[in-house]
Design a protein that fits this description.
single chain, 85 residues, mainly alpha, 2 helices, flat, transmembrane, transmembrane helix, membrane
Length: 85
């Protein structure tokens, strides 16, 4: 009875090139998603925030300069689209 049982490992075919590409592509995609999620969860460093505040104050000063008024476009009355009966 012991001679009838076959305990040898089953034959598994070698993975093809496209299966390897798919496996490693999914692996790198998962790593990329984890990096993106961590970038959202983890707070931004203080030095980066101060750089942004300095940039915003400089840009707001540039906006405060007087601007030339743009000519207003005159609105034409809309044509009636309904047919008169």
């Amino acid at each position: 009875m012991a001679a009838e049982l076959d305990f040898s490992p089953p034959e598994i075919p070698e993975p093809t090139f496209m299966e390897n590409v798919l496996r490693y592509g999914l692996f790198f995609g998962a790593i990329f998603q984890l990096i993106c999620v961590l970038a959202i969860i983890l707070p931004v460093s203080k030095s980066h925030k101060t750089d942004l505040e300095n940039f915003e104050s400089k840009s707001s000063e540039a906006v405060k300069k007087p601007k030339a008024t743009a000519p207003q476009t005159s609105k034409k009355p809309k044509k009636e689209t309904k047919k008169k009966r």
